[in-house]
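Section 5.1 Outputs to date
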Amino acid sequence: MRVIVHRKLASHVFGFVLLLVGLVVLFLVFWRAWPSVSASSNVLSSLWSYVLTEQVELAWIGELRLVYVTVLGAVFLFLGVFVLGFSRRILYLSSGPVLLQCPYCRNDWKARRAVGWAECPHCRKFVQPQVKKSSVA
């Protein structure tokens, strides 16, 4: 059985852009917080308290808390992973005979192999048939 992975290019690129923006934002938050956090004995709790209390000055928005920027970066990161995960479609092609079904007339026919597009022998339409069974005798 052959496996074909079909990637949708636009959503694949969009997912990578979201992922990179999320990583860059989280890196910048960590970069800004590290000088004041690194001297502490408990790095994680001091990082958390720094992120909750510190504010960032943005020219076009005003002041934002660092926790909002961190949440925004995490949302971009997870959205990028989500879009990348759903930007591909996996198709399984069998090498043996299959039973195909027409999506219009719902009639079945046997074929040597699964095909992407075929002409239905019953209604004579050019369709994308659905595979009902693999390895039909």
